[in-house]
Request: fold
Amino acid sequence: MKEDTLWVEQAWKDTFEKVKTTSQEMTVSFPSMTENGIYSDTHKPWAWVVGFWPGLLWLLYEKQGYQPFKDIAIDRENIMDGPLDEFINIHHDVGFMWQLTSVKQYELFGNEQSRIRALRAASHLASRFNINGRFLTAWNHNDVNNADPKGLSIIDSMMNLPILYWAAEQLDAPRFKMLAMAHADTVIQEFIREDGSVRHMVEFDYLSGKVKQYHGGQGYNEDSAWSRGASWAIHGFSMSYQYTQEIRYLETAMKTADFFIDNLTDDHIPHWDFRAPRTESTPRDTSAGACAASGLLLLSDLVTDIEKKDKYQTAAINILKSLYENYGTYHDHTQQGILVGGTFNCPQGLGINCSLIYGDYYFVEGLYKLKTKLG
Ligand code: GLY
Reply:
């Protein structure tokens, strides 16, 4: 790495110290987003965010060996057996939930119970495949807009595919991988625009499999470019390429990455939607920056072209450094999150300029990758 690297060590150290403190203070089991600096609980053990806090603790534990982080991560994974057994409320985000927890614990310690949990989660995701439209159905209900949940798929799904690829390898069962690739191909077709911008929600006719309507979802409108959706695509397609070696996934990751990077402003942190009307006070979304940065580091490892490699790594480092320097809460003890400046859902006015647990997670994941590269 050419760039100066001292800040990476400092950021990692500061993050470890911050989380040591917040993990003791935190009264909630599954932090989601902050209100006045304090993390609120999801109150729903099946919510898509529940894996991020234990996942973040695993990353820090792995490098620091700090036992309380391991204890909390295992405790939260155990609680997540509730929704897995209950089954009825589970949706497509099982990758976010069990990849960062159960797959991680299995990789670290070979815990067979964790492996079975993740395999059950993958089986559930496979069961959400719509054979006519060749897409994974996102939700069981839809309170967001008037789209029929039976035919609704969303870009976030790209982050859930790795648990299918992983299950295919674990069980020597290519059917999981084939479903993941069929979905990824539909996403290329229907979600990724020619210019590399990304749609959030596509509603299909669940019987014919044909597209009925595009929805803006958490973006500004159906023609806009929600930045976290873009980050899900960059990161998700990079992981699909990592597991399959199919060049079309690498090309899609690069196309979405190029759009993302081209639309950043001087401080390297994306606005919440690249096409929302912009003023001085338009919110940014640090979680989109963090997720994209971690994905760009992976993409940089995967591409062979030296210029592209350098471009993606430099962009990732610029984002992470700016997050650390401009959005980190290290000296602000009133904030439980690591990063401020996250935007959960701008159209609904929810979670603007707060900490988001997935922003914190991907920031730590990005630092973890940089620290690993440095040795
Ligand atoms: N997966 C929902 C979100 O990105 O806010």
